[in-house]
Amino acid sequence: MAKRAYPLGKVYALLEPGPVLLLATAGQDRPNVMTLSWQMPMEFEPPRVGIVLSDRDYSHGLLKASRECSLNIPTAELIDQVVAVGNCSGRDTDKFRACGLTPRPARLVAAPLVRECYASLECRVADTRMVNRYGLFVLEVVQAWVDTAVKAPRTLHHRGRGVFMVAGEVIRTASRMQ
Question: What is the pLDDT of residues 67-122, one digit of tens each?
């Protein structure tokens, strides 16, 4: 297989770690939701997730102030809403209403869950030491919800510049974790 040099500005598209998320936060006037693809699992138990938010994102300030959020996992059927959420700002738009999504109360955090997503994770900020330098928030999942009717979720994976992949075939193999 012959390989060629690849532009460094596109490397992130090769490394996208997991599904696109809808990050919901509580605001003073209304809840907010944003599309997020820069996330990574960091610990099994208690479950911890790292997310990267630019300090230019409206949600960055909301999360920094409230220290709570929900991470909601949409399926491919929500691609239009996911893109619409990502293409406007919560500073001047009620993105739940504008993008056809429904906020639902969470059990343990003030941030809402997104009803249309097949899974939702209620989170609290566990570590902010890398926020100012890298925009990296470490979250602890304190409650998880999943729609058990969805047997093989077709999750979205961002490849950059409006290109997404959909999780495909499930491959099972021997594992020490079974």
Answer: 999 999 999 999 999 999 999 999 999 999 999 999 999 999 999 999 999 999 99
Q: How far apart are alpha carbons 46 and 107 in whole angstroms?
A: 18
Domain boundaries defined on the chain: 17-166
Question: Radius of gyration (Cα) for the chain, nearest Å?
Answer: 16
Per the CB < 8 A criterion, the answer to whether 59 and 68 are in contact is no
Q: Tokens 């991470």, residue?
A: 71
Q: Where are the beta strands (DSSP E) in 64-129?
A: 68-73, 103-104, 113-114, 119-127
161: left (phi over 0), alpha (psi -120 to 50) or beta: left
What does CATH list as the number for 17-166?
Answer: 2.30.110.10
Question: Rounded to 10 degrees, what is the CA torsion of 52, 54, 160, 42?
Answer: 0
At residue 88's C-alpha, the angle toward residues 84 and 94, to 5°, is 90
For the stretch 121-161, pLDDT in tens is: 999 999 999 999 999 999 999 999 999 999 889 999 988 88
- Read off the pTM: 0.91
